[in-house]
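Sample pair:
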Amino acid sequence: MVHANAALTPRARLTVARLVVDQKVPIAEVAARFQCSWPTVKRWADRYAAGPSMQDRSSRPRRMPGKTDALTTRRIVSLRLRRRLGPVQLAALTGVAPSTAHRVLTRCRLNRLAHVDRATGQPVRRYEHDRPGAMLHVDVKKFGNIPDGGGWRFVGRAQGDRHRSATPDKPKNAHHNPKMGHAFVHTVIDDHSRVAYAEVHDDETALTATGVLRRAVAWFAARGITTQRVLSDNGSPYRSHLWRDVCAELAINHSRTRPYRPQTNGKIERFHRTMADGWGYARCYTSEAERRAALAAWLHEYNHHRPHTACGNKPPVTRLTNLPGQYSANDDGRSTTRSPCSPAARPPS
């Protein structure tokens, strides 16, 4: 691979070689023009005259007598998939060194057990749609409501129980303790860009879920994303006739995952973990209202500023092209560029 400060890139090498071979320019003159030595110019001219590419050749040797044979490699991979064994156990069964077994697993991208599906034993198949709006993932995450004064995760069990008892206007359970209830976060994520939309509600009924879907589709449309398909699990809101009718009204194809297969909807499942760490349990909230009010700011941080590994360590919003508000027209018709993080591009609070 050509390093950043290389004097001759493959394109420049081709230019150098053509000057010498095709136009008969002296090697010394070409070397002075491109500020490199004449042996370098001669090497690329000879390569061009012989026909090979101007790209760097691989440093891999043509023959590797010490490489693990194909039969042993297949056996290591088979044992890894069927029995989920580590390099030490694989080495004992196949007669190779543990380091060799680990190199084989790394080469086959099976060096981490997380890369192997726990249910089927097969390598995890990852997918990503090629454009925003091709698929939206929808799901509901349930959080326990926070009592006034703070929850037990930050203040401890004893103080948390006292805060629960002191929270007014809450019904009692069979043990005369207040029932705090739950906050249902309805989330919608674009499969390609990972841009997320979320709302907090007190239930997960079909009426609430369809309302969130309508607003999410409009929210994505305002950012230049046309929704074509939606993927959900088999929860009751997504099996209802109301959900089916709303999807038909919005011209959206609805698909559901197989039962007990959350891996298919893994992008939104992983988002829920990120949301729990970054918002749900990020700090000591003194009330449930305070936590719900902080959701919009965290979503803006996630969409516009937080680096995402699936997006090349860039924020999800960078995968949206021609984001509304990014290019605007002046009165004279000229276009000006506006940052995606400007107030006009922020999600509504």
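The chain is about 40% helix and 10% strand.
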